[in-house]
What does this fold into?
Amino acid sequence: MRKRWSLAVLTAAGLAVQMALCSAVSAYPHPGGVHSAKQLTSAKRNIAGGSQPWVDGRNELIPRAEFYLSEPPSAVTDFNVPGYYEDPAGHTRASEVLQNDVRAAYTLALAYQLTGKTAYAEKAKSFLANWAGKNTRISGTDGPLVMTYSGVGLIHAAELLRDYSGWNIADKIAFETWLTGVYLAKAANAIKTESNNWGDWGIYGAMSAYYYKDDNVQLNAEIIRLKNKIESSIAADGSMPQEAGRGVSGLWYTYFALAPITSAAHIAKEAAGIDLFHWTSPGGTTIKQALDYLLYYMNHPDQWPYGENPRMPGSSEDWGYNLFEAMSDYYDEPSYKDFASAREPIMYLSSHFAWNLLSVTKGGLRLTEENFDSYTSTAAPYSWTVSKSANTSAVVWNIPTATDKSLKIWDMNAAGTAAATKVFPDQYGIVEAEWKFMYTALFPSAKFGLKGAGAYAAELLTTPSGLVYRSSTGSDIVLQGLSPNTWYSVKLIANPFAGKVDIYVNGVLKASGVTFHSAVSFLDRIEFAGAWGETGTLYIDQVNITN
It folds into this structure.
């Protein structure tokens, strides 16, 4: 006999679920996954600052969002996709049902985040509700794969809507139920153990879903799976044999495998602080080897070893370009940015959803995060470039304590100095740099700041008058009086497009929109140095740089 529940009981149960969900502490920050709150803040800041390609990207995004406001969702109960090589037309026709809705939901959700326009959020959530409420089955040879690589875009949209007050708890529960019971169970988890690009997409899809669900146990398990995949799928020469070996389509399939691998690595870094972009597997393979292999043959398709005239991006296709635009923020490799810049603005929305809408979402990454605690005391920090004259040094020191170290710049040479430099990938958008400093006695003319190709864009100095900014005219703008044995925090928000910088000391804005000391088109390093003509000791700590 079926039990009959009263309205009061159902209402109470619903409220209990809502209270539990609302009171639970998230394992991860949201929005998150591929689009963090820092990234969205960076995007809005770059748009407001007139930086490119963010402005052009925004100008492409909003008209698309306006178009999608009038498009109806079209979810299906059974997402049935035949194999592409069995029935190309049928495969494309069935896939487009989902892909059109994902493009709409994703575009609208991002437009909402950048503009605050609730009409975009309302329309985006209607697509999520339609698929969550209707889709229960996935079938056909390619159904699980297409749902994984296309449906992951619905997760991106859900992350972008997560803080929207108009998305009620019942609809959120419905979406998460679909995410668990359909997307994960019948698509991503069903293919993540495959050895080719199917497995890459499965891992990425699962990581995106587990991040959204705040399931750190499952997400950490997928990070381990991703490590194993990097090792097993990339050969010593950087090729991905299962993809490159597919003849004239090998370049495309190599890209198609690297897109989810790198997107999954991005989530691993954001969620767990695990940097797989610079990780070397036990067998000696790296993501960068595969990227370099792909880029070489995209630049030299006539040398492709697996067949003449390999498939390359058409004039209206941005695949490959989107990948290297994204990777230019992770690697100090100018060739990546040089390659990608040919297609800016890059707002790639095709069949698969990894590294899309890039020109408006680049940013929010931690370029440098340094506290010096992991280095050997009295030795130079090995990941920094140190230059020094006689009777000078730049080494790690047990100040304030042996477990809370700092960088000590010691300069007893009036005719020379020591400097420590940290290089990061070229940044054309706004960069935010923070650090702490202290001296034990007045150390005139010690300097630090952001540089581009060796020239100081934002140069700060210590003087008897205090901390000053050296303007483009050579005059000093006094920012803050200084006292010995006192730590001061500095933050620069530097815009290379505008050639301007905002300067904060101890959290207080001291100078707004001042002109760069030297005009540069990009920023690529931070430097801390002693003084020429003066002597003294300077301590640096907590260096953090984001784009």
User: Anything to note?
Assistant: The longest helix spans residues 88-115. The chain has 15 helices and 17 strands. The longest strand covers residues 536-546. Residues 1-24 have pLDDT under 50 and may be disordered.
